[in-house]
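Table S2 (continued). Query chain:
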Amino acid sequence: MTQLNLAGWSRALAGVLALALAACAAYPPVRPPPPAGVQPAPGPAARGDHARSAEQYETLAATRPPPARFELLLSAAREWLAAERPAEAGRVLASLQGAALTGAEGTERALLSAETALAAQHPQEAWQRIAALPEPTGASGAERFYSLKMRIAMAAARPVDSVLAEMAAERVLAGAERTALRTQLLALLRDAHERGVPLDPEASKDPTVRGWLELGAIATQARGASLTAEADAARWRAKYPNHPALEVLSQALPAPMVPNVVGARVALLLPLSGPAAAQAAVVRDGFLSAYYLLPAAARPELRVFDTDVLPGPQALAQAHVAGSTFIVGPLTREDVAAVANSGAQSVPVLALNFLPVGRPAPPGLYQFALSPEEEARQVARRLLADGHHRGIALIPRGDWGNRVNDAFTRELLAGGGSLIGAASYDPAGHDYGAELRSILRIDDSIARQQRLQSVLGGKLNFEPRRRADIEFVFIAAPTAVTARLIEPQLKFFYAGDIPSYALANAYEPDSTASNQDIDGLMYPDMPWMVSGDGNIDQVRDSIARAWDDRAAWRSRLFAFGYDACQLMLAMSARGRDPADAQVAGLTGALHFDADRRVLRELIWVQIRNGEPRRLAPAAPQ
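Corresponding output:
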């Protein structure tokens, strides 16, 4: 017999409650009826004022003897939870500790205790509480129990247990209740995947569990482009032809796009000759990879213009003359600024760079970029969420470093953090010892040792120390080579125990051995650069077979070009404002802000043994 394990209960009460639960055939329903003869005013709860309703229940409970008092306090705890005030719910439930509750009341208190721990963001504690409860043997109350157990298990990063809870529910539920649980499980799996919880089918041998986990790994809520959605669904359906999730498969993946292809003409503006030709070619190859995934009948006509031969505004004019209904590009900051000077656009233009901060875009101009400034802001938000508020920054000299430093510092200060030191360095250099000794105050430590030796007149055993008030290090490295030089030198100067953060370009997948030099480094990156995402992994395998070694398909610029095509298709969908487009892209979850600039929601990773590994999302601040 499964025993309850609720901290603080007396052994005698635990035994009585466990026996009562074992004898019960059903759990309490979602909202048990109020105590007999007690009719608290329903107005506040009906109006959504659950806190006021909870106060009324507590006031009534103070005037009633048991058992009515116990039932009223349980009702108060439910209302406090509905008011999103778990601390108050916990207080009320604690007042019932040791009370002579009936079996049903004890079960209700245990369920509310688990739900309270979940609401208070203590998922492991919530899991311990609900895992100690026996499962219901009938349909009554089963949906409530299993729904809560599913949510708690997923919050505790136990996706297999979450799926098993849903499967147990299907043995006693049917019809609309069963469909609702399947829908809820899909949403939980999708959300868990998006916040970095591994959904590994190898964690279970049960084909139903494996099917749910695989579906969760490819599911997305993003509206807009998903060029592989139909193929993903077909592969999953073929692998699991009788799976219960077939009922909700249409909810797992976005509906196919319906771009305006009849008469559509797309112009791609890139500097395919000149100094930026190599980067532009990679963007072009990524764009074409997405473009040719479309069925031939669904592909708009495509023309490519070289903006090194024709400067941005002239290429734009030629694209208009050619009858383009959508224009992607140009790529360089200078060309984008020049296009913006030409004023409002008669057809949508998706520029592949950002205008300077504070400069508004004319109507019809949309902006998509791999912005280091936006990454720097995400770094500042993450380290604050990780509990680090005082730190130092290593910034390369030049315009790039200045822009990154400004974005990072502004976001850090706005969140209540402070930069207690910053060192500028030459990104072309190799030895950053002088800068690191200065910002870490190693030289101060050595000077103190020398003064002390002078006073004492003898040599001392001594190990230099860095300053002790540093909670983080932000390494703004323009290349992976620079990051590989700085991080080991930080460790050499006694700063290896300080959490270090960087931008995505600190990592390149060229050598695991070289990347071991940056072990421990944390940074935000696009999903394309990190394995472990079922959908992205399938795209990567397909593109690897198509390109082999004929393109830099593993790079961020390739993913950028691919997503530029996805955005173009999503923005061209019938009956949609282009700015409403959302894409679950290779470069992140993409959507537009109020200034028609694409914002990218990145994943967080840490280098371990030379390989990027996903980190859990930051705790809410």
